[in-house]
Design brief:
This protein is of the alpha/beta class. Among the domains are: about 75-165, no CATH class; about 320-540, 3-Layer(aba) Sandwich (Rossmann fold), CATH 3.40.50.300. Helix content is about 40%, strand content about 20%. The protein has helices at about 40-50, 80-85, 90-105, 110-125, 130-140, 160-170, 190-200, 210-220, 235-250, 260-275, 280-290, 355-365, 390-395, 400-405, 420-430, 445-460, 475-485, 500-505, 525-540, and strands spanning about 1-10, 15-25, 30-35, 55-60, 65-70, 175-180, 205-210, 220-225, 230-235, 320-330, 330-340, 345-350, 375-380, 385, 465, 490-495, 510-515, 515-520. The strands form four sheets. Strands 5-6-7-3-8-9 form a six-stranded mixed sheet, with helices on both faces. Strand 6, helix 7 (about 190-200) and strand 7 form a beta-alpha-beta unit. Helix 10 (about 260-275) packs antiparallel against helix 11 (about 280-290). The radius of gyration is 26 Å and the shape is globular. Mean pLDDT is about 85; it is low at about 275-280.
Length: about 550
């Protein structure tokens, strides 16, 4: 349990939040959301004791152990993988070291024997004899091999270190788990395993994440950092988002009967409470939802960028034909005799871990790379717009401000040539006031992504190619891009690791495995439910 009493934090002369009163109870998973810079990670650091608040207190029972997902990937390079995982329970690790040191003494005394006996009892009580097997189960669940247990952390790749540190945070049945972006750099099987682990976990979990599917799957409550405060709401992210949107409509629409909107909200709550959930807390969640009143539903202060893609021309029947495409990168054949045909209305998601293969294909289709073999052909009616994985060429060493940068891509006509048009367009993408005169080379990663999306929207293309468009974006911007691509009537080829993003946009899924293409006409959920194994068997068959 965690009790937050009258918590406030002033940071660099700015009040991030004040007068926060919350109670977090065992058996629940709370998703912490908020705009970039609102203070989500800061709040987590206060709860962990890493950061002192300006005022107020955090109450955690003395007998409850808290585990925190570490962010420093080099912190444990001097340790083995096994020791790193066991350090998730520092006291267990200390007891083990002290116990082993005693047994290694050449002059083992009676006092040493008494102390060793005490340590053995404590060690057994903490599950020390099962520690190695428990650590092994955790790293195997996250997709790592048991054979690395005794390897040094320094020998692991960045992605492997992420998984080991996550295993550390979950080790030893802690009472409280704090996770900051736990799904970053995880593959799909590892994310699914983590979801199942958290849903079966009896303790208290607080998680910061931009992964909407993950939040929807595991969370029983949402903690919203907004308006300089922090409030808690029952339900998962979708419930919070949709109910907040209903509230915004209610407040904006003063001319219609409020009773109609209240009825709509109540019907929504009823539908939500009846939905199937994997979480074992579903019954308790439904009971809480039944008690929700209109006043408890938030109206968010967040701003969502406008992302909408329009076509200057309807695409014809011939979209894209790829035949026998091959390409070797750094000695590895990332594309091996790849052939496919894109049909009108296709929205194709490229998934899986081989990002290099997908990026290579996109660069070839955009004529930034030459294939080693094979051909491709776009239809004569097709106009393309490309969102590259690396956008640095558009911003580095560029001295233009935002208005002038955008002006490079506006049409040569009276309307789009005006500064008023460009400022209005940038305003819809959340660049307002004097922000539009900032040099583009100093923009943040998220701001650069919004610029690239603005550029694409100005082209009026009927075929969009996007390589990881949600990288660097906050939840609000991800939602806006998601909705914009759902509404787009043209063809989309995109790569993403965002489950919700892929599931709601794609009607076709492709994946590269050892350079070979798996191509399935289905939703993402259907693909991972069985279609992938079927296609792999056929590929290997």
């Amino acid at each position: 349990m965690i009790i937050v009493n009258d918590l406030s934090l002033n940071f660099s002369g700015q009040t991030l939040f004040k007068h926060v009163d919350l109670k977090f109870t065992p058996g629940n998973c709370y998703g912490i959301i908020g705009a970039n810079g609102a203070g989500k990670t800061t709040f987590l650091r206060i709860l962990s004791g890493e950061l002192e608040p300006s005022s107020g207190e955090i109450i955690i029972p003395d007998n409850e152990r808290m585990s925190v997902l570490k962010q420093d990937h080099f912190q444990y390079d001097a340790y083995t993988v096994l020791d790193t995982v066991i350090l998730g329970n520092p006291r267990l690790y200390e007891v083990e070291r002290e116990k082993n040191a005693l047994y290694e003494k050449p002059d083992f005394s009676d006092e040493d024997g008494v102390r060793a006996s005490e340590l053995e009892a404590e060690y057994a009580e903490m599950g020390g004899w099962e520690a190695e097997s428990d650590a092994s189960r955790l790293i195997q669940g996250l997709g790592l091999s048991e054979s690395i247990l005794h390897d040094p952390m320094s020998s692991l790749s960045a992605k492997e270190k992420v998984k080991v540190l996550l295993a550390q945070a979950l080790f030893g049945k802690p009472d409280i788990i704090l996770l900051d972006e736990p799904t970053n750099h995880l593959d799909l099987p590892a994310i699914e395993w983590l979801e199942d682990f958290l849903m079966d976990y009896d303790g208290l979990v607080l998680v910061v994440s931009h992964d909407r599917y993950f939040l929807n799957t595991v969370c029983t409550g949402i903690v919203d950092v907004d308006y300089g405060g922090i409030k808690m709401y029952v339900g998962n992210y979708d419930f919070w988002y949709q109910s907040s949107q209903l509230m915004q409509r209610l407040i904006r629409d003063q001319n219609r009967r409020k009773e109609d909107k209240i009825k709509e909200l109540q019907e929504f709550i009823s539908r939500f409470s009846a939905n199937k959930s994997k979480s074992k807390q579903a019954t308790a969640r439904r009971k809480l939802l039944e008690k929700i009143s209109l006043e408890e539903i938030p109206m968010s202060s967040r701003r969502y960028p406008f992302v909408g893609f329009t076509m200057d021309r309807e695409p014809g029947k011939e979209i894209l034909t790829v035949e026998h495409l091959s390409k070797t990168v750094d000695g590895r054949k990332v594309l091996d005799d790849v052939s496919f045909r894109v049909n009108k209305g296709d929205k194709i998601a490229f998934v899986g871990e081989d990002e290099i293969a997908t990026t290579t294909l996109f660069k070839i289709l955009m004529e930034e790379l030459e294939p080693d073999a094979g051909t491709f052909k776009w239809g004569t009616t097709i106009t393309t717009s490309y969102f590259p994985l690396d956008n640095s060429a558009f911003f580095n060493d560029c001295d233009l401000n935002l208005v002038d940068w955008l002006g490079q891509y506006t049409a040569d006509n009276a309307e789009e040539g005006t500064e008023s048009f460009k400022r209005s367009f940038l305003g819809r993408m959340l660049f307002s006031g004097d922000d539009v005169y900032k040099p583009v080379k100093v923009l943040s990663g998220g701001e650069k992504v919004r610029c690239m999306l603005s550029r694409m929207m100005l082209f009026g293309s009927n075929a969009l190619v996007l390589d990881q468009p949600t990288n660097h974006l906050d939840l609000e911007s991800i939602t806006a891009v998601n909705n914009g691509l759902i509404d787009f009537k043209g063809v989309v080829l995109f790569a993403s690791h965002d489950h919700e993003f892929v599931q709601t946009i794609a009607n076709r899924v492709m994946e590269f495995v050892d350079g070979k293409l798996i191509d399935k006409m289905c939703t993402y959920d259907a693909y991972i439910a069985g279609a992938r194994e079927e296609m792999l068997a056929r590929l290997n068959g």
